[in-house]
Amino acid sequence: MTYAKTIAEARAAIGTLGQAWNGVEAESAARMRLQNRFRTGLDIARYTAKIMRADMAAYDADTANYTQSLGCWHGFIGQQKMISIKKHFGTTKGRYLYLSGWMVAALRSEFGPLPDQSMHEKTSVPTLIEELYTFLRQADARELGGLFRELDAAKAAGDAVNTHRLLHKIDEYQTHVVPIIADIDAGFGNAEATYLLAKKFIEAGACCIQIENQVSDEKQCGHQDGKVTVPHEDFLAKIRAVRYAFLELGVEEGVIVARTDSLGAGLTKQIAYSREPGDIGDQYNSFLDCDEVDAANLGNGDVLIARDGKLLRPKRLPSNLFQFRPGSGEDRVVLDCINSLQNGADLLWIETEKPHIGQIAGMVNRIREAVPHAKLVYNNSPSFNWTLNFRQQVYDAWASEGRDVSAYDRARLMSVDYDGSDLANEADERIRTFQRDAAREAGIFHHLITLPTYHTAALSTDTLARGYFGEEGMLAYVAGVQRREIREGLACVKHQNMAGSDIGDDHKDYFARDAALKAGGAHNTMNQFAA
User: If 0-12 CB within 10 Å is exposed, 13-18 middle and 19+ buried, where does residue 525 land?
Assistant: First the structure.
C-alpha cells in the first residue's frame, strides 16, 4: 500500500463519519497507520515465516545465501542491532534475531540469575518475543516519523525533487521487523505443555521455534555435562505439537528447528518402546551400553532387553539413568536428524563441543544421504574458545602436512606470545571465513551467536567502570561512549528521540494542533547533537 493510497483510504473512512470528524486529518491518520504496519503478533509471524521460507529456498539454490543472527535479551538490544544493520548495510535481508533460553534464564527470571536448565518462568520467553517486536515496531515508527518530517520540510520549501525522492523512500520503506528464532528448550513439560507454550510464542510473533531432544526436567545447557536425551517418539510428539500450534493459528509456513544434543549426551532416562526389530525404538536402544546376561545371573531390579535371541542388561546408574555406548554420539546424531526431518522438522541444530567444519560436514553428509536438502542452524557459541580451537586446528593441519611446528607449543597456543604469528594469523583467517566456509561445506543455512550481547554488555561496562571510577573520570564516558556515538553516527546519541519523544510530539500535533505543548523545542538539549 503506497503512501498516497493509504491517505485516500483514510480520507474515505473519515468522510463517512460526518462533519464531527473534520478535525481528524487523513494524512496524519495514514502516517500513523504506516508507522504501525503490524497489528498483532500473528501478523508478524505470518510475514516473517514467508521471509524465512524464501531465505531457505535461496540457500538451497546457492549456499552463499546463508543467514545470520545475534542473540538478544532485551527489546532495546534487538532494536539497536537492526538499526545498526540498516545503517551499515542498507537492508535487513538475511539477518534475524535469536532468542536464547540461556539468556532468559540468566537475565530475565524473577528468581534471579539461573543456569540454562529450564528453571525460569516459561512465559518469560514469549514475553521477550513480544518485547523485541514492540521495540522493532517502534524503530519503524521513529524512522518513518523522521521521513515524514523531511517530507513536510521539502513540501514547505517547494522542493519538488526532494519531495518525490522522499515519497518513493516512504513507499519502499523496509521494516526493522525480521524473523526471530525462539528457543523453547525441551518444551517445558509434556507434549501438551509444549503445544500450549508454542501458541504463546507464535501469538507473540515467533515464526520459528527451536526445540531440543533432552528430557524437560533434566535439561542442561548444550555445552554442559549431564545431558539426557529422550526416545525419538517422545521428541516427535513435541515436534507435532509445535506444528499443530502453527496450523491452529494460521501460520502454515512456520518453521521448526529440531535440535539434537546427542553428540554430548551419554544418558537416557527411558528405554524406547520397540514394536519390531529395526524400528526407531529398536535403533535407539541399539546404542545402549549393555552386558549380556543369562537367567541365572540376574540382580535385584535388573532391567533387561532382548535382541537377536540374547538377553542384555543396559547399564543403569544410581540416578536411574541408562548410559549409551561411548563413541556412539555421531551415529545417534545422524539418526536423530534423519528421523526429525522425515517427521515434520524443517531445520536441524546439532550441538557440538567445538567449531570444526570437518566434524559437522561429516554428520551432515550422512544425513543428506537420506534427506538431500538437510540444512542446519548452527550455534557459533561463546562457550567455545575460538582462538584456541582454531590455533589447534591449524597446528594439527600443519603437522599432518609435515610442516615445521617446532616454534609452537600446542598446549600454550592461547598465549599472547603467539599473537601475530603465522599460525595465529591463519587461525584468525579461518575464523573470519568460518560462516561462509561452513555454509558451503557443512550445510549450515543459519549462523547465530547465542550470547553475544551478554558478553558485550559485560565488556563495555567493565571498560567504562575502570575509567570512570579511576583517573579518567567523566572523560571515560565522553571519549569512550558519547564522542564515539556522535562520530560513528549512532542515532541513540539522541536518546530522547530514540525513546519516542519526537513521535509523541507528532501525535500532539495531530491531536491538539496549535495547542500542542511539545518537547522538541529550542530548549531541548538534544539539539546539541544536531551537528
Answer: exposed
Question: What are 27's three cell numbers?
Answer: 494524512
pLDDT for the residue 460:
95
DSSP string, 417-439: GGTTSHHHHHHHHHHHTHHHHHH
Indicate if 251 and 337 belong to the same structural domain: yes
pLDDT at position 221 is 54
Distance CA 60, CA 404 (A): 40
Helix, strand, coil distribution of the chain in percent, nearest 5? 55, 10, 35
Residue that finishes a domain, picked among 385, 417, 450? 450
Residue 529 pLDDT grade (very low, low, confident, very high; cuts 50, 70, 90): confident
pLDDT of residue 345: 98
Check whether residue 393 and residue 514 sit in a common domain. Answer: no
Tell me, yes or no, if 221 is annotated catalytic: yes
> Could you tell me the strand order of the sheet in which 310-314 lies?
290-293, 310-314, 305-307
Confidence of residue 158 (pLDDT cuts 50, 70, 90): very high
Three-class DSSP category at 69: strand
Where residue 390 sits, what CATH number does that domain have? Answer: 3.20.20.60
The single residue listed with the C-alpha cell 532468542 is 99
Q: How far apart are CA 50 and CA 38, in angstroms?
A: 15
Dump pLDDT digits (tens) for 362-379: 999 999 999 999 999 999
- pLDDT, one tens digit per residue, over 437-476 is 999 999 999 999 999 999 999 999 999 999 999 999 999 9
Contact between residue 491 and residue 86 where contact means Cβ atoms under 8 Å apart: no
What single-letter amino acid sits at 296? Answer: A
Q: How many domains does the chain have?
A: 2
* Cα–Cα distance, 321 to 326 (Å, whole number): 15
Among residues 221, 290, 337, 492, the one annotated as catalytic is: 221
Would you say residue 6 lies in a domain?
no
Choose among 377, 384, 267: nearest CA to 329: 267
Spatial distance between the Cα atoms of 212 and 350, rounded to a whole number of angstroms: 10
The rounded distance, in Å, linking the Cα atoms of 387 and 434 is 12
- Cα gap 209→181, rounded to integer Å: 6
3-state DSSP call for residue 512?
helix
The average pLDDT across 138-154 equals: 96
Three-state DSSP state, 526:
helix
**What secondary structure, in 3-state letters, does 177-219 show?**
CCCEEEECCCCCCCHHHHHHHHHHHHHHCCCEEEEECECHHHC
- Residue 323 forms beta bridges with which residues? 267
362 and 334 in contact (C-beta within 8 Å)? Answer: no
pTM: 0.93
